[in-house]
Design a protein that fits this description.
Shape: elongated
Helix content: 55-70%
Largest sheet: none
Structural class: mainly alpha
Number of helices: 10
Length: about 200
Amino acid sequence: MPTARQSLLDAAGTALAGRPWPLVRMADVAAVAGVSRQTLYNEFGSKEGLARALVRREADAYLAGADLALKEAGVEAVAEWTVTAAGSSALVRAVLTGCWGERLPAPAPGGVTSSSTVPAQRRADGPLPGPGDLVKLVRERAAAALRSAGRPRAEADQLARDCELAVRLALSCLLAPPGDGGAGRLVREALPHRRRDATA
């Protein structure tokens, strides 16, 4: 069963899908989540706090998906996941590209002072990742996962660099669709040392 926090974030995401963020009302989010408005304010402090937590959740979901894609299908799958995630979530697209439209919450990139006792909120109140931060996180997490899986350091570092390049190529696909073969084909063509079966 989802927590009140998860329900509120789900409700905020649903509201955002239907109307621009400036028109999303806190009272409506609380009502859809089935909690009081006071519970919403206790969890997030303000609409800005809710926005920051929503953006953080989307960034975390993108990173978790990139981790899974790398583990299950390799570097090419990270590129495909990046295109898919950005195509299915306007917030993920905005976090990955830095292009925030009027319809989206665009929390200030720096952190805010938080007196929250809720650990998840304190984390959301910290600096939000920008496009460069996410690419760096994908690379660092890939390197750490590969090393912990027993790959030699040099091999893990090369695969992590490949992972970063795959994400950067995938981001270009958001502006210019990649055509036949998708982002995975671009990765294979740009990184000829990549083999289809070279999975992490």
